[in-house]
Amino acid sequence: MAPRHRVVILGGGFAGLNAAQKLKRAPVDVTLIDRRNFHLFQPLLYQVATGSLSPGEIAAPLRGVLSRQKNTQVLLGEAVDVDPDAKRVILRDGAAFDYDSLIVATGSKTSYYGHDEWKEWAPSLKTVEEATQIRHKILYAFEWAERADSEEEARAWLTFIIVGAGATGMELAGALAEIANETLKRDFRKINPREARIILMEGGNRVLAAYPEDLSTRAEELVKRLGVEIMKGVMVTDINGQGVTYKHGDVTAKLAARTVLWAGGVDINSFGKQLGVRTHAETDKVGRIKVKPDLSIPNYPDIFIAGDLALATRPDGKSLPGVAQVAMQGGTYAAKAIRARLKGKPASPPFRYFDKGDMAVIGRAAAVANIFGLHVSGLPAWLIWLFIHLMYIVEFQNRILVFVQWGFQYLTFSRGARLITGATETDVDRAKREASASTRAAS
Amino acid sequence: MAPRHRVVILGGGFAGLNAAQKLKRAPVDVTLIDRRNFHLFQPLLYQVATGSLSPGEIAAPLRGVLSRQKNTQVLLGEAVDVDPDAKRVILRDGAAFDYDSLIVATGSKTSYYGHDEWKEWAPSLKTVEEATQIRHKILYAFEWAERADSEEEARAWLTFIIVGAGATGMELAGALAEIANETLKRDFRKINPREARIILMEGGNRVLAAYPEDLSTRAEELVKRLGVEIMKGVMVTDINGQGVTYKHGDVTAKLAARTVLWAGGVDINSFGKQLGVRTHAETDKVGRIKVKPDLSIPNYPDIFIAGDLALATRPDGKSLPGVAQVAMQGGTYAAKAIRARLKGKPASPPFRYFDKGDMAVIGRAAAVANIFGLHVSGLPAWLIWLFIHLMYIVEFQNRILVFVQWGFQYLTFSRGARLITGATETDVDRAKREASASTRAAS
What we know:
2 copies of one chain form a homodimer. Helix content of chain A is 34%, strand content 26%. The first copy, chain A, is α/β, with parallel strands linked by helices. In chain A, the strands form 8 sheets. Chain A has a 6-stranded mixed β-sheet with strand order 5-2-1-9-21-20. In chain A, strands 13-12-11-17 form a 4-stranded parallel β-sheet. In chain A, strands 6-7-8 form a 3-stranded antiparallel β-sheet. In chain A, helix 1 (14-22) packs parallel to helix 9 (324-342) and helix 4 packs antiparallel against helix 5. The longest helix of chain A has 19 residues, at 128-146. The N and C termini of chain A lie far apart (78 Å). Chains A and B meet through strand 5, helix 4, helix 11 and helix 12 of A and strand 5, helix 4, helix 11 and helix 12 of B.
């Protein structure tokens, strides 16, 4: 008996997991390799950052999800290199895996546009660790404001700047406003959390630039109603422990803030870059790899790319956005293409993204949605958002847990996951001392 | 108008939180100071360590719990010193708080009996961070066993040693056995998780030494039925990355294991020690402070001690154990004593611990309980355990979440919180490399 066709999938995000699941009944041996032991439901990560959900509630262990899929093994590991001619992937620990077909779904990371030093002061929202780090930053800010020695210091602790007004930035701003206005309103004795300033800085001239214009306008109204200040057309030039320096036209200004969150750009991580080099593939400026209509790399028909790493285009020539839906459909397509080839057929028709629409939640009972071209906002959009997100959460158990958390939050404004872990008092005191020391030095 | 009586409470555990809540209607100003922003339901921490619950589900933000209690403020900070004559506590950041009455409920930490170097290899179960660290260790062990190069290496990864067979050790062993036998049984392709060895090492001659003897015997039967091996009368003499060295009588032996968990001794943390020094109080060998019948320190009637730091005795002369019930009742008593004094009355009668009993859960539908002297085991004890623990969880929302998690786990053996976070692949690979390098060096 000939050995079975070996499919190696790199990455267990939306693209990789969907690809693996769609190969369940195919006559192949699947190896899914991921750095983490879980699939993360990224669209709800901002709710972990804002204390509504626990990480466990939006993560599903990959082994558990795939345990009954007999032709599939899951391995913890990080791919660092590939030999596309020998058809082999190499992991960081030196282990090598041979493949007959490779699906690369290693996703993207955050870009600080060449200013990686900002990362220290302005965490982004890509991993579970960053989400809990943001949660700690937000909750600590109110704690230190309560214990501040001067009005000025309290004010800096109560100023929150979010850089980038895409869906993540808007959702963070909305959730932060709700924390300040409702969740914490009775919790402090010296400060009034409602006096917190939440500022959204955007380089472009409208929020949610990827959405139709009327929904941008509506989203801006909704988020302003929560008390969020929006600054459009500003370019951030520096971020440090004191706040943000930005340019607005020719004017350079500073805004003091102890908490800055980065909801900015996207970059390709190192394996994706290495793959581009090894396959001599054409890439765009962030490193996404241009794929053929069947999602394979030119000259390497056995390597498929799905998700954020793929530079695929729509019939109108626009490139597809790096969102969950595109990733899921890409993963599914790659699996189908492999199944078709095993039967000796070409992958046809070519990959075509079926755009069901976009949605962003801005606050309690407030969202905007573009569903099959229908523009909806406010409560109806919010209900659709809730329903769709609950449906797509991977494990039934998590669906129930998230439903319970959301139900309580709707009724009581309480947030179930408001713990600050990880940093000890010592670390924190040091941070506080350093922050005030540098305030003194700066003033 | 005279300023109100100031009560400072150090620690927001069972003792401190109960004391604060019992002062709700008293004519006092309460300041509750804790290093963490949450109250932790410690008795369920082993379920966080074994992936059944998320940290958020057993933690309640102190501010949230006390937000409607107008006379109480919560502060994040760590007390490092006290001046009992000036009636002042000093925090690590230098802030000082004057009190009229002080309730010290700073609890205990883990003791490695003078071998703090073992901590690196054998984490204990005291904080949320340690619980997630243990969870990662356990889950990674199976991952590395799956990827092991040799049978011997796989065997070392699949050997788990728990040191100490008190309630925590027994509960960890039972949960680990369930993980190996049920939760992960379909998840791996090379290894069989059911072949994992779980070994409980105990220095004394029976498990659950604090329990009546018949319950010890029953608990041992229950945990053995799950496949746990019990070694009694062994003294651990060394723990490192390779495993445990122990003495059994005159014989010294080694057991190779990559995962060692410490469910051993108790120590008093540094503030408790400092308090003992400042008040010239009598302490026992771990540093617990001998208190008067009203829980105050001799010569300092304004300082009360509640919880693990207090060395209080029962009428029969035995000292009270460091458990949640004693802490809750101690906190409540200290609050009552302060209220009585404000009315010019002595605190009477003296503190007397009302022992409702002990219980430990050993596995699915298996527990032992001593309730008001009634000895129960098996399913009835387990049901009582479930009910009581659900009742005592602080927030209603968490009660529902824990109920959902337990319900699913009972029905499906799935564990909702099985993520490995915090360590990157790079760290892990390094750990793995180092572990195998030292294996080679040792062999």
